[in-house]
Structure prediction request, 823 residues.
Amino acid sequence: MPSKIVQWINARWPLNAVIRWSLEEEMPGGASYAYVFGSCVLLIFLLQVITGLWQLLYFVPTIDRGYSSLNYLRTEIPFGWLIHGLHYWGASAMIILVGLHISQVYIWGAYKNPRQLTWLIGVGNLLLTLGLGFTGPVLPWDERGFWEAEVAVSSAGTTPILGTLARNLLQGGSVLGQLTLSRFFFLHVAILPGILILFVILHLVAFRKFGISGPWDEAKRKRSGFFWPDQVFKDGAVVTFIFVILVGLSAYRRPPFPGPLDIMQTFYVPKPEWYFLFFYQTLKAFQGVLEPIGTIGIPVIVTLLFLFLPFYDPSPERNPGRRPVAMICFFIFIAWVITMAIIGYYSHPGVASGVTSKVSTASLQPSKVSPGNPPAQVSASVKQGEQLFNSLGCIGCHTIKGRGGVVGPALNPQLLQGKTRQWLITQIRNPRSHNPSTIMPAFNSATDQQVNEVVDFLLSVVHGKPVIRGPVAKAPPTAKVLVPPAAPPTSGVTGPHGPPEAASFIIGNVELGATIFHQDCEACHGPQGKDKVPNPGSTGGTVPSLNPVDPFLFNKNAQTFINSIDPYIQHGSIPDGPNPALRMLPFGDSESLTQQMIANVEAYVLRSNGVERAQPVHPGLEPHFFFWLMVIVFGLVLGGFWVWKDRR
Amino acid sequence: MKDNLFFAEPATSRRGFLKRMVGVLSALVAAAMTVPLVGAIIGPSFRLKKARWVKVGDISSLPLEQPTNMKFPYKTEDAYLRETVTHDIWVTKHSSSEVTVFSPICPHLGCHYAWHPETHEFACPCHGSIYSVTGKVLGGPAPRPLDTLPWKMEKETLSVEWETFKVGILQKIRT
Prediction:
């Protein structure tokens, strides 16, 4: 019956002819694993199309919903983690495979006459693939995507003569916003894939006209092979292997959650995707007037070098051993790309020189003085005052010498200039007498000596130089065991003064949260939230620990956990007790932290307690389980087939 | 090579084996992809809406045995959207600690119905269903009585569990 249907179709559509054209290819020299890369690119591209389409079921390209709709897919949709993971890792795989394919073609000299057109179309494919890799990461409009769009638009603006036009067209509107995102979406989902599909077809037709160029060694060309099934089998085996790797990466190395876009965020160091790192690093050599040479000149020149290769290298010699110039140029290019990429990866552009990139875990110690500053003759009381500034909690709200919170004004020399000792003492003991509407608590439980030492420290700042702000903190290791606090319950709080707000349904970034925590929370909650910082005047006697957090707030479901801690950060709360010196400030209501920053801090606090903010709530099958199930099934079927083959 | 391209070869031959292997590999990868793709499409399609308790308001000023429409803000969860909308319910106060709460959605086809004090009946404008003050169907195409909602009272402050039910059927089944 199936053959009758096939016959019926064949009489009306050239089905057999198409199949024969696709599969019947004689391969001089036989099939080889060296030739698999082209097919691998094609099949991984097919995977990208399918996973890309499936993401359209849930992702919406708007600046307010892009990130949250993608996270909904990744955490609430069965196998959403896999579909997005395959697409994310598949993009990297496709670029690597394209690189391997181009390298193989180059080494075999397969771009030479009569295959020049195949090569030209191939360069087009390369540019389209890079374009896809460029426009894709912008779409979630998260902390990473936005900056990639910003760089794209600004770089377009450096084009000589047409710069303003290019920039405005790419930006789409008067600001980098919704219209920009829509344009990137249009390019990534419709235009670039559409043109690429057309170009791939043209590329395949051009390729099939002459077939593979094959070995350059005449002796090796004597052996013959066929595309079907010899080469197809090799292609299939390699692609299956790549597929299994991609699933493994999706299960064990989930694509990151960069955190929601927060324009005011200053800790995030934007860097492009790894495959553009070489270009990012190279551009650093072209500053100022030279910038267009880097942003436009280099890509244009490299593209032209690629394009015209068959024409400035017309010699028919294909043996790489007899093409030293070609091979040297190849290795120089590869070396440039790899070296620049590695340097770019490890570079820290935003951090001032002389400061290390590891944050000191003993943050209650006096801050380090930057090099070039003469080590001051610091008296004992100033040192003591600095330690009290930390332990009494002042640093939670005030920045001094470049470190601290941003709830209150920064205690820099300009602010402190002209303030007498008595004024400062009154400000600490009774801030409301200076400003009735201040939220600064009155530190009237500190001793006179302590207050004087803090004032000594403050006054020393008036005459000292500021220290460069500390760098990005590292995320904490996941807490292994949740230990209930043995101490009397620290939760003598009256409860937060309101419900969860917007931050409670934004998935934040743990690393950024660690930095914000270090700056704004650590002074009261201790480094990594572990310590029991004294809170004189409160019933519990200390500020509640956050690592581990109180059991009545903890929940292994991320959303429930967040809903119980978010209200404290948003609306603040006052601990029980006759006169608590410290209370939780309403960081949300006072807008001293944006909702995005609060979301990041919450992700960090959850991670410290062993809970992933971005846990897949409805994964379909757990990622690790799905991966190993797939590996076992694949192994059993293929192994069984192998045994069956040997039995006959 | 003019042979049947696919599986005419005996499996023992090398070519035959390779052809079958390609088939097996394709089937494995296709199966590994089909499960997640189908799972992601079905996804949340059959999930129930989350029911949540929400505070409605103070019933102390409500008249006895007279259905009153009470409105309240409700934070909806629609996929990744969070919005505050206004919902309403029909509340009949029997005493300061006892009420009946009706969902405002007509079980026939989902319209909002109204209370008519002059005839002492609920009436739906869409297709003419009529209900008594206890929610019993008095006339019209309604398939079942008015749907009640769970409620609780704390010192004359009423809270309800906002739920919705499938329309047009005999049974009261949550959506």
